[in-house]
Design goal:
Shape: elongated
Number of helices: 3
Order of helices and strands: HEEEHHEEE
Mean pLDDT: 82
Low-confidence stretches: 17-27
Helix content: 10-25%
Number of domains: 1
């Protein structure tokens, strides 16, 4: 649209900038490398390890369709947020692919079992909002 003096109006560029800022938060999300390991031996938790680090290089890939939205509980540390919402996070890991290794043997009537759940190092896009954290793994 032209104004009376013949110059173009700035309303369209401003509205497109506002649209990009509001609706494309995934483009500006931080990228984190997350890995997880959970070991159980004879029905007792043996070890649980969660590694979270900010990606040093840009991760390649597209975000999955399914995302996890968590309550940050007044924290900006991703590891603390994941540990405080551990049940939802582990259920989400099952959906995206968690490696399960189970071994069981019986010797002299004594059963010995071990189970290891592993999420290999994987890149996630993480978007921190005021009242939620949106986490999406990359394919």
């Amino acid at each position: 649209m032209r104004s009376r003096d013949g110059n173009h109006s700035f309303t369209q560029p401003i509205s497109s900038i506002i649209f990009l800022l509001l609706f494309s938060s995934a483009l500006f999300a931080d990228e984190y490398i997350i890995s997880y390991r959970y070991s159980v031996k004879n029905a007792t938790l043996y070890n649980e390890t969660l590694y979270v680090s900010k990606a040093m290089k840009k991760c390649k890939g597209k975000p999955y369709d399914s995302t996890l939205i968590l309550d940050p509980k007044e924290s900006e540390n991703l590891k603390e947020i994941l540990l405080s919402n551990q049940d939802e996070f582990i259920a989400f890991l099952y959906k995206i692919g968690l490696n399960i290794q189970h071994q069981e043997e019986t010797y002299n009537g004594v059963n010995d079992s071990s189970t290891i759940l592993t999420l290999p190092s994987k890149c996630f896009k993480v978007d921190f909002n005021d009242n939620s954290v949106k986490i999406a793994p990359l394919k």
